[in-house]
Amino acid sequence: xxxxxxxxxxxxxxxxxATTGVGITGKTYADVTIYxxxxxxxxxxxxLAGASEFVEVDATNMPGKYNLKLTAANTDxxxxxxxxxxxxxxxxxxxxxxxxxxxxxxxxxxxxxxxGASLAADVAAVNxxxxxxxxxxxxx
Length: 140
Description:
The chain has 140 residues and is mostly beta strands. Helix content is 8%, strand content 44%. The protein has helices spanning 107-111, 119-124, and strands spanning 2-4, 9-14, 32-38, 44-46, 54-58, 62-70, 79-87, 93-100, 125-130, 133-138. The strands form three sheets. Strands 1-8-7-3-4 form a five-stranded mixed sheet, with no helix packed on it. The chain has a three-stranded antiparallel sheet with strand order 2-6-5, with no helix packed on it. Strands 9-10 form a two-stranded antiparallel ribbon.
């Protein structure tokens, strides 16, 4: 999964029973231990501040599927970010993210378009000439 540097993001976690392989339901942030390893660093424990940082998605239709919230501070280092989730009776889940730099320049800046150029304005009116007659097509 590709994410932007220093942004808050929800990442998927799948908790499966270590013996049966069936999704484990009903777990909360208090039941899991999260480790993060930023590129070039050692793994550290991620303290979860509350229930909103580790949430079960749907125990009935997606048993074992959870979302883990990573904060901007968690995603502040470029390249690989590895996270693991450990829980009693479950296989440890390991996820790997690619953290990339936030590209603040617009497509027009990169293409050398004049200041104030707008993609929306460019596609809003398209002139077409057919058999010597020019028509204007406007897109909403």
